[in-house]
Every structure is written in structure tokens, then in C-alpha cells.
Write a structure and sequence with these properties.
The protein is 45% helix and 16% strand. The chain is an alpha/beta fold. A seven-stranded mixed β-sheet has the order 3-2-1-4-6-5-7, with helices on both faces. Helix 2 links the parallel strand 2 and strand 3. The protein starts with 7 loop residues before the first strand and ends with a helix.
Length: 230
Amino acid sequence: MSYRYPDARILIFSKAPLPGRVKTRLIPQLGEQGAAAFSADLTRHIVQKVADSQLCPLQIWCEPDGRHALFQELHKAYGVELKQQQGSDLGIRMGHALADGLSTSRLVVLIGSDCPAMTADYLEQALQVLVHGVSCVLGPAEDGGYVLVGQSVLNTDMFETVDWGTMDVLHQTRLRLRAAGLPWSELPALWDVDRFEDIARARGLMDKRQDAAGIRSASIRKDRLRRPAG
């Protein structure tokens, strides 16, 4: 496959969709099984989107590991590399993944699996920031965190003493970067899926993509039928 950024990697952090273990804030609305199924759909959506973009090679960083049927399905469908998250908190796990990525690639962009608003153009903006010499890029989230972090020079200090899962994550990360004297760039803010009202707009985006994929598949089938045999 020909990639536009062959010396880059996109890393997707994803939890195995185990009932009661994922999207716990949505369990009151969806139930444990429903929240797990919704989480799996979000992961499928972003993996398909990134794989179709052909920007650069893709890795799924799995938690607790890559043995779950969902990860095996995506590995088989898209040939993505499966990696295991390592570390006692999110900051340590992200730092480890970025270090691993930068050991073999010049640019690394890390995203989660619960931001269906993420687009190929947005990811390419992040890669372009890094290509043009800024060593760190952030994609803020509307809830005070961030949906993307990219690096061309490893910096794990930005992940230390951060209150993960709170509205202070982005603010604290900026403070770490500023204190270290490290320049960074920020992309426009996006939303991720955390609240009940996010469910409908996430499903709307996923359904729209599935409809578009169905139209493309039908068009390909019709084209094949019109071709002369032999």
C-alpha cells in the first residue's frame, strides 16, 4: 500500500468492549451490553476511517490485550498491527506507546477510539504540523481533555501529574508543556463520546458513513455488471 506519510504512524487507543468495563457513563441509558456494543461500533468506525485514509500505517493499542474478537476482526479486515497498552495510568500508557512509535517512525499521532468526529483531514493537519517542525500537536476536546496528541520528539513529561478523566486535563497538559519550555500547536476542538447527548450524534455520523460505503459498494457492483465478459 502507498501511504502519503510512510514515515509516520497513527496509534489508536482502544479498550476491549467488555460489558461493564467500557463507556460506563452511558450504562444508565444503554445498559452494560449496549454500552459495550456501542464502544465496539465506535472502534470499528475510527479504524475504518483511518485505514481508508491511507495516510500512514496504523496500530491499535489494545487494553487489556489484543485477543478480543473485535481486535482480531479489525486485524484481519485491515491488516492493522495490534499492540498492548502498558502502564498503571493513561499518561504512562500514552508515553510508552509514543516512545514505541518514535523508535521506528519520524512522526507519531495518537488518538482514542471514541471521537467519531475525527476526520482524515484533521489527522493530516496534525501530521502537517509535525512535518513543518513543531514537535508536539494537540487536538483539544470540548470537555476539557484532548482527542489527539502527536509528537516528533518524545516528551513524556507532559503526561505526568495529570488528573485524567477530568475537565482539567488539557489545562494541566498546557502547564506542563509551558513549564518545560516546549513549543506546541493546537488544532480546532472536537467532541468525543462521554454523555447521553453524544450517542445520537455519534450514531448519526456512523450511519452516514455506512450509507456512503453502501453506495460505493453498489456503484462498484453495477460497474462490474456493465463490463463485457472475457
